[in-house]
Design goal:
Blueprint lengths: L1 H22 L2 E2 L8 E2 L6 E2 L3 E6 L4 H5 L1 H9 L3 E6 L9 H14 L7 E3 L15 H15 L3 E3 L10 H5 L8 H4 L5 H11 L5 E5 L3 H9 L7 H9 L5 E5 L4
Parallel strand pairs: 4-5, 4-7, 5-6
Antiparallel strand pairs: 1-8, 2-3, 8-9
């Protein structure tokens, strides 16, 4: 009976958390993220050029969907820079096309998607990418696209992948929270609450069903454990972004 009650409570918490993700837009209030006041007219300007930097095709669908949905729904100009084709298993060309298909589902303009195949930035757990090279590539992209904001991995790279860690910059969570699904929404909101206003933002995914649709475009990677990951991962339901200076 005790186990039955625990299962009921956990199921109820999961359902309540999922409802929050579907019916809430973000925390703090919508207009606080990416907005600034123009000094002359006093009007709020919220259209930004945002660069999402990832390591491999499918990173965008596994880890950044809440923020992608938020940015595209608010009319921001989202640019995606993928540092490799993900050719560790010899499927680089296939994975490149899969990323374009996923971006079409995510409403990211294909002309805003850049996928690199640099000799020194090849996919693999044993590959170490030059931070200086990465910095120069990102710097060039910032200049050419007039980028206002960069979003990417934290120092741990979310999953610990060396390529992710080399591309670092954002915010991540520990292993228990990582696989808590929508339940992590409560902890993310709580964490954001204790940061000074404007330093941390909690963005919820109102379209969790589209997470499966986007990830399914990566057919070469859409195996059973990634399907389980998309179901249980907190990154499907919430992204917590912490503002840092560079």
């Amino acid at each position: 009976m005790d186990w039955f009650l625990i299962i009921i409570l956990l199921s109820s918490l999961w359902a309540a958390s999922l409802c929050i993700a579907i019916y809430a837009c973000c925390f703090p209030p919508k207009d606080a993220f990416l907005c600034n006041v123009l000094s002359k007219s006093g009007e709020v300007a919220c259209k930004k050029n945002v660069l999402l930097v990832i390591a491999h095709p499918d990173d965008e669908s596994m880890f950044f969907l809440p923020v992608i949905f938020y940015l595209t729904s608010k009319g921001h100009n989202l640019h995606l820079l993928c540092m490799s084709t993900g050719n560790a298993d010899g499927k680089g060309n296939m994975r490149k096309e899969e990323l374009y298909q996923a971006c079409a589902v995510l409403k990211v303009p294909l002309q805003h998607v850049k996928i690199l195949d640099h000799l020194d930035l090849q996919d693999g757990f044993d590959k170490i990418w030059s931070h200086k090279l990465l910095a120069n590539i990102v710097k060039e992209e910032i200049s050419s696209q007039s980028i206002d904001l960069i979003i990417t991995f934290d120092y741990y790279g979310v999953s610990g992948h060396k390529n992710h860690r080399d591309v670092h910059h954002g915010i991540s969570t520990n292993i228990m929270r990582k696989y808590s699904g929508p339940v992590d929404i409560w902890l993310s909101i709580l964490c954001a609450f204790f940061y000074p206003r404007g330093e941390m933002f909690c963005l919820l995914n109102q379209y969790p069903n589209k997470s499966f649709l986007a990830m399914a475009q990566h057919r070469s990677q859409w195996v059973w454990f990634r399907k389980l990951f998309v179901s249980l991962s907190s990154y499907t339901y919430v992204n917590t972004l912490r503002k840092i200076s560079i």
